[in-house]
Inverse folding.
C-alpha cells in the first residue's frame, strides 16, 4: 500500500510541472495584461512596473525565475493586491472555501444518501418518485438561481438568516445549503442506482433468507456495495466543491479561494492565477488518490490488482 | 468493515452540528457603525499605489490631505493645514499646519511628513500610476521621470515644522482641490520603513495593526474579500466631530447581493443599484434611492484610421442620428444626463458652447455628402464593448437608431475587460466603434480634454489635431479661470466638429441609502465626510 502511495505521489511531480508550464505560457498568450487599465499607465511608469514584477526580462527567463521561486515554495507577489502575497492570499481564503466545502459536503452526503437509500427500498413508489423528482430539480437548478431564491425566502421574507457574509454561524447556513444541494441531488441518484443493483444480488436474498432484519440487510450488507458509485463521485466532487464554488462565494460574499481564482483570471493577475491553478491541481490529484485508496479498502478485489 | 455502516450516522451528526451552528449570531448590534457597500476588494491601502474608486473611499476615512473639501460645493476647507496663502501670480502656496495635527499613533504630523510622502510618490522606482497628479508642482515631472535626482529641486519646501511652501510650474486653478486626492496625502515614514524600503510597492505596512494614518478613522480589521473595519482615530484633530462609532466597508461585487443586504438592513449605503431595480425603487421606495451627478462621461470612440469612419462627415452623421434623450429616459432610466459634449457641465464654471444636436435629416444629408445616400455602400461597422449588461443595452439601442435613421448595418461584439482594453489600445486599434468612458480625477476641464491630445495614451481613436493640442497647451499658462475656460471652449468646439468620439451621456451615481442616515451630502467626485455620518434611529426609515 505504501509503495502505491509513494509511486502515485511521485507521479504528481511531472503532472504538476506540465500544468505549471502550460498555464504560465497560456495566461501570457491571452490578450491584455495586468497593467492594462482604463486610464493609460504612462510609458515610464509601465516600464518601472514591469521591472518591479520581473516582466522586463525575456519570457523564458521569467519562466525559470518562477520555477526557482516555486522550488522555494514562493508563489510570488500578486500583481493586483499590493498588501498580500499569493501564498498569503491562498492561505487566507482556502480555509474559508474548505469550511464551506465541508458543510456543503455534509449537506450533500446526508440529504443525498437518505433520499437515495430510502428511494431504493421502495422503488417506483411515491417514496421513490418524490425525492428523485426533487433530485432532478436540484441537478437542473443552478446555484445562481437557488442561492438568491433561498435568500428571498429565508432572509428577506422570514428574516431568519443573514443575506450574506461569513462571520457568524447563521451566515454559513445558506451558502452551505446552496452549494450542497446540487451535489446532494447527484448523490441521491447515484446511491439509489447503486443500492438497487446491489439489492437485486443473490447475497442479499441469502441474507434475507437467513432471517436478518431489513435494517441489518440494508446497512450491513447492501450499503457497502451500494454506495461505491457515490465514493467514486466524491473524489472529483470534493475537489469541485472546493474549487468551483465561485458562484456561491460571490452570491453570499464568502471570502473564499474560488472567487479569488476567477477574479484573478479576469484581472490577469498572472501569479495569483498560477498559484491557484497549481494549488487546485494538487488538490484534485490528492483527492483522486484518496478515492482510489478508499476503493481499495472497500473492495478487496482491488487490493491485489 | 464495521465503520461503513456508521456513515449515515456520522452524516446525521454533522448535519446536526451544522444546524446548531446555524442558530444565533445577529449582525448590527455593535454601536453606531455605518456599513457601506464598497464595490470590489481594494487593491491595497497605500495611497501612493492604488488607483480605484473603492480604495478612494477607504482612504478618505484613513488619511487626510492639507485641505479638505466642503462636501456640498467642494470648496476648500481646512484639513491638516489650518490656513494657507496664495501668491498673486498663483504659483506659490504657503500652508500653515495645525499645531495639534497628529498621526494615529500619536506622533506629531509635520510639514516634513508631506515632503517625505511627495518624494516617495514621485520616486521613479515606486512606479506610482498617480504620480502625474503632482506634476503641477515645480520639477515634479522631471524628478518622476528621472532627469532630476535631487528632491530639493522640486517645488516643495518645509519652512518649519508647521509651514510648508509649494511652488508650482504654472498657475493651476485646481491646485487646492488636488489636495483632496489621495496621491497628495501624507504617509508615516516610520511605519513604511519599518516594513520595507521607501520604494517597495508590496509591503505589510498597510495591514490592520500596522497602518498609521492621519484621517478620522483607524483601520481596525481587514479581512480580504470580506470586510474592512475602521474605528475613530483618537488622535484626529477633530475627534470631537466624529459622529459615529466606525465605518465598515464591504467589498460586494454582486449588485443583487448588495441590494438584498440593503433590504435586509445589513448595510446602510450601497455602492450601486442593479439597473432593473432603479424603476422599482423609484416607484415604491423613492426615499431609499439616491441618484447623484458624477464627474464622468460615457462616449463611443471612432477608429478614425479605418474607412468610412476616417471621414468626419460620417462621424458627424452617426453622432447626429443618435437620440440621447430617448436613450437616457427610456433605456437607461437612472437619471443619466444626455451629453451633447464631452466635459460634464459646471466644472469650475465651464459649460461648453459646442453641442452635438439630434437631427436625423442633417445626418442623412451628411452621410449622402460623404457618398452613402440612405446608407447605400456603407459597410457594416461593429460596436465593441466590454462585457457588461449596461453596455449591451446601450449598444442595442444605438444599433436600432442607426438602422432606422440612416439605414446602416451595425454588428455588436463584446470582450472581457482586459481583452477590450488591449483591442482598443493605441498600439492595436482593432475596432470600428468602441464604447468607452472617462471619470474625472480632478475638477477641471483639462482632465477630460487632454485625453484626446495627439497620440495621448487615452486617445485610442487615431485622431489628432494640432490646433487642439496647442489650445490645451496654452491653458497651462493662464491663471484666470474665465480666460482659461474660453480656451477650453475653443478646444472642445474642435473636438465636437471633428467628432473622434460621440458623447452619449454624463454619468450619475445611483445608490441606495437607509433613510436613517444623516450627514450624507453628495458631490461630483464622491468626496465624503464619513465622520459626519450618523444614524437617526428615531427616523421613520424602515428597511
Amino acid at each position: 500500500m505504501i509503495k502505491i502511495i509513494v509511486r502515485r505521489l511521485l507521479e504528481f511531480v511531472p503532472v504538476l510541472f506540465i500544468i505549471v508550464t502550460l498555464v504560465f505560457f497560456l495566461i501570457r498568450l491571452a490578450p491584455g495584461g495586468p497593467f492594462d487599465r482604463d486610464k493609460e499607465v504612462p510609458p515610464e511608469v509601465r516600464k518601472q512596473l514591469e521591472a518591479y514584477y520581473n516582466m522586463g526580462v525575456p519570457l523564458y527567463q521569467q519562466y525559470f525565475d518562477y520555477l526557482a521561486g516555486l522550488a522555494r515554495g514562493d508563489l510570488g507577489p500578486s500583481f493586483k493586491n499590493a498588501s498580500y502575497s499569493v501564498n498569503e492570499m491562498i492561505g487566507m481564503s482556502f480555509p474559508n472555501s474548505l469550511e464551506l466545502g465541508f458543510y456543503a459536503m455534509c449537506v450533500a452526503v446526508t440529504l443525498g444518501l437518505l433520499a437515495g437509500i430510502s428511494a431504493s427500498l421502495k422503488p417506483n413508489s411515491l417514496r421513490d418518485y418524490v425525492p428523485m423528482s426533487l433530485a432532478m430539480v436540484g441537478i437542473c437548478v443552478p446555484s445562481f438561481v437557488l442561492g438568491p431564491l433561498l435568500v428571498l425566502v429565508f432572509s428577506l421574507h422570514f428574516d431568519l438568516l443573514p443575506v450574506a457574509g461569513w462571520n457568524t454561524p447563521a451566515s454559513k447556513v445558506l451558502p452551505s445549503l446552496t452549494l450542497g444541494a446540487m451535489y446532494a441531488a447527484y448523490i441521491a441518484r447515484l446511491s439509489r442506482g447503486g443500492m438497487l443493483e446491489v439489492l437485486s444480488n443473490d447475497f442479499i436474498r441469502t441474507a434475507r433468507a437467513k432471517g436478518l432484519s431489513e435494517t441489518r440487510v440494508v446497512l450491513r450488507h447492501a450499503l457497502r456495495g451500494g454506495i461505491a458509485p457515490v465514493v467514486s463521485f466524491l473524489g472529483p466532487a470534493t475537489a469541485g466543491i472546493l474549487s468551483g464554488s465561485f458562484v456561491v462565494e460571490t452570491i453570499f460574499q464568502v471570502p473564499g479561494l474560488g472567487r479569488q481564482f476567477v477574479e484573478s483570471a479576469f484581472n490577469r493577475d498572472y501569479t495569483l492565477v498560477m498559484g491557484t491553478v497549481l494549488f487546485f491541481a494538487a488538490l484534485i490529484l490528492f483527492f483522486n488518490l484518496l478515492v482510489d485508496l478508499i476503493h481499495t479498502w472497500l473492495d478487496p478485489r482491488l487490493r491485489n490488482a | 468493515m464495521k465503520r461503513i455502516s456508521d456513515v449515515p450516522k456520522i452524516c446525521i451528526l454533522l448535519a446536526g452540528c451544522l444546524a446548531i451552528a446555524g442558530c444565533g449570531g445577529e449582525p448590527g448590534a455593535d454601536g453606531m457603525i455605518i456599513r457601506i457597500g464598497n464595490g470590489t476588494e481594494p487593491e491595497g491601502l497605500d495611497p501612493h499605489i492604488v488607483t480605484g474608486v473603492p480604495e478612494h473611499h477607504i482612504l478618505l476615512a484613513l488619511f487626510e490631505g492639507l485641505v479638505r473639501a466642503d462636501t456640498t460645493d467642494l470648496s476648500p476647507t481646512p484639513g491638516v493645514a489650518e490656513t494657507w496663502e496664495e501668491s498673486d501670480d498663483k504659483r506659490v502656496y504657503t500652508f500653515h499646519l495645525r499645531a495639534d495635527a497628529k498621526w494615529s499613533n500619536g506622533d506629531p504630523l509635520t510639514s516634513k511628513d508631506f515632503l517625505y510622502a511627495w518624494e516617495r510618490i514621485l520616486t521613479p522606482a515606486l512606479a506610482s500610476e498617480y504620480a502625474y497628479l503632482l506634476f503641477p508642482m515645480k520639477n515634479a515631472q522631471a524628478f518622476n521621470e528621472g532627469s532630476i535626482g535631487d528632491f530639493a529641486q522640486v517645488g516643495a519646501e518645509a519652512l518649519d515644522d508647521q509651514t510648508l511652501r509649494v511652488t508650482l510650474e504654472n498657475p493651476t486653478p485646481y491646485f487646492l482641490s488636488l489636495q483632496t486626492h489621495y496621491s497628495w496625502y501624507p504617509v508615516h515614514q516610520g511605519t513604511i520603513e519599518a516594513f520595507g524600503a521607501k520604494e517597495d510597492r508590496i509591503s505589510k505596512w498597510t495591514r490592520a495593526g500596522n497602518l498609521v494614518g492621519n484621517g478620522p478613522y483607524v483601520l481596525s480589521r481587514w479581512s480580504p474579500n470580506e470586510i474592512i473595519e475602521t474605528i475613530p482615530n483618537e488622535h484626529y484633530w477633530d475627534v470631537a466631530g466624529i459622529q459615529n462609532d466606525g465605518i465598515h466597508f464591504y467589498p460586494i461585487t454582486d449588485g443583487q447581493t448588495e441590494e438584498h443586504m440593503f433590504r435586509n438592513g445589513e448595510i446602510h449605503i450601497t455602492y450601486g443599484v442593479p439597473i432593473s431595480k432603479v424603476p422599482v425603487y423609484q416607484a415604491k421606495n423613492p426615499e431609499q434611492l439616491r441618484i447623484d451627478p458624477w464627474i464622468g462621461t460615457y462616449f463611443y470612440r471612432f477608429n478614425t484610421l479605418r474607412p468610412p469612419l476616417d471621414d468626419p462627415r460620417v462621424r458627424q452623421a452617426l453622432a447626429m442620428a443618435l437620440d440621447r434623450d430617448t436613450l437616457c429616459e427610456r433605456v437607461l432610466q437612472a437619471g443619466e444626463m444626455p451629453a451633447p459634449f464631452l466635459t460634464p457641465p459646471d466644472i469650475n464654471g465651464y459649460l461648453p458652447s459646442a453641442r452635438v444636436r439630434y437631427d436625423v435629416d442633417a445626418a442623412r444629408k451628411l452621410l449622402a455628402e460623404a457618398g452613402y445616400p440612405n446608407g447605400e455602400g456603407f459597410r457594416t461597422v461593429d460596436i465593441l464593448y466590454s462585457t457588461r449588461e449596461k453596455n449591451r443595452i446601450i449598444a442595442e439601442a444605438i444599433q436600432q437608431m442607426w438602422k432606422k435613421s440612416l439605414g446602416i448595418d451595425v454588428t455588436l461584439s463584446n470582450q472581457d475587460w482586459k481583452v477590450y482594453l488591449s483591442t482598443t489600445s493605441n498600439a492595436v486599434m482593432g475596432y470600428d466603434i468602441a464604447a468607452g468612458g472617462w471619470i474625472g480625477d480632478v475638477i477641471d476641464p483639462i482632465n477630460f480634454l487632454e485625453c484626446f491630445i495627439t497620440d495621448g495614451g487615452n486617445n485610442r481613436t487615431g485622431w489628432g489635431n494640432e490646433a487642439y493640442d496647442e489650445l490645451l497647451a496654452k491653458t497651462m499658462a493662464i491663471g484666470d479661470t474665465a480666460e482659461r475656460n474660453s480656451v477650453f471652449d475653443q478646444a472642445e468646439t474642435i473636438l465636437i466638429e471633428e467628432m473622434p468620439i460621440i458623447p452619449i451621456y454624463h454619468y450619475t451615481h445611483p445608490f441606495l441609502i437607509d433613510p436613517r442616515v444623516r450627514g450624507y451630502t453628495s458631490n461630483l467626485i464622491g468626496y465624503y465626510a464619513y465622520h459626519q455620518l450618523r444614524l437617526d434611529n428615531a427616523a421613520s426609515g424602515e428597511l
Summary: DSSP finds 13 helices and no strands in chain A.
